[in-house]
């Protein structure tokens, strides 16, 4: 038996003043769209801003439904919109911001498993990493270089074809 440890590094910024300028605007867009989320059941609002290689920013927020599985997370709303409307554009970064109407979200909220898989699919499709910028309402900002860091041993199309 051999044991292996899987880990990754991330950048931690204490404020937007420390964040690279090109990421500040993207995070601000995620925060703005977060406030328009349809979250009447959980009162947990999430906004996502997807930056495309051509400079276009595509926005999404969570959309809840009384039939819970029918809702959709902000990350998938934004990334699927980008894929549908800009299919040949590379996604370079996604900023994700989370807040609650019931308490202060003071730490970054990472994407759920379904969103991690969807973002991973786009990394595979475009053959390049997608940078993630994560923040709650306040507190630290996490920057991760690729979804593969948050989804180690991920499932991709290489499992579907005999190589």
Automatic annotation (TrEMBL):
<dbReference type="Pfam" id="PF00383">
    <property type="entry name" value="dCMP_cyt_deam_1"/>
</dbReference>
<dbReference type="InterPro" id="IPR006262">
    <property type="entry name" value="Cyt_deam_tetra"/>
</dbReference>
<keyword id="KW-0862">Zinc</keyword>
<keyword id="KW-0378">Hydrolase</keyword>
<dbReference type="GO" id="GO:0004126">
    <property type="term" value="F:cytidine deaminase activity"/>
</dbReference>
<protein>
    <recommendedName>
        <fullName>Cytidine deaminase</fullName>
        <ecNumber>3.5.4.5</ecNumber>
    </recommendedName>
</protein>
<keyword id="KW-0479">Metal-binding</keyword>
<dbReference type="InterPro" id="IPR016193">
    <property type="entry name" value="Cytidine_deaminase-like"/>
</dbReference>
<comment type="similarity">
    <text>Belongs to the cytidine and deoxycytidylate deaminase family.</text>
</comment>
<dbReference type="InterPro" id="IPR002125">
    <property type="entry name" value="CMP_dCMP_dom"/>
</dbReference>
<feature type="domain" description="CMP/dCMP-type deaminase">
    <location>
        <begin position="21"/>
        <end position="145"/>
    </location>
</feature>
<dbReference type="InterPro" id="IPR050202">
    <property type="entry name" value="Cyt/Deoxycyt_deaminase"/>
</dbReference>
<dbReference type="InterPro" id="IPR016192">
    <property type="entry name" value="APOBEC/CMP_deaminase_Zn-bd"/>
</dbReference>
<comment type="function">
    <text>This enzyme scavenges exogenous and endogenous cytidine and 2'-deoxycytidine for UMP synthesis.</text>
</comment>
């Amino acid at each position: 038996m051999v044991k292996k440890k899987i880990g990754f590094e991330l950048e931690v910024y204490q404020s937007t003043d420390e964040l690279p300028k090109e990421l500040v605007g993207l995070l601000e867009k995620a925060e703005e769209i977060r406030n328009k989320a349809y979250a009447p059941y959980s009162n947990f609002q999430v906004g996502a801003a997807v930056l495309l290689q051509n400079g276009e920013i595509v926005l999404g927020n969570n959309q809840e439904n009384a039939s819970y599985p029918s809702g959709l997370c902000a990350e998938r709303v934004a990334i699927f919109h980008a894929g549908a409307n800009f299919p040949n554009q590379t996604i370079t970064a996604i900023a994700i911001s989370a807040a609650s109407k019931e308490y202060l979200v003071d730490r970054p909220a990472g994407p759920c498993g379904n969103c991690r898989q969807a973002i991973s699919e786009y990394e595979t499709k475009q053959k390049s990493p997608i940078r993630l910028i994560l923040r709650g309402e306040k507190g630290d900002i996490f920057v991760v270089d690729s979804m593969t860091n948050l989804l180690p041993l991920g499932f991709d199309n290489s499992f579907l074809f005999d190589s």
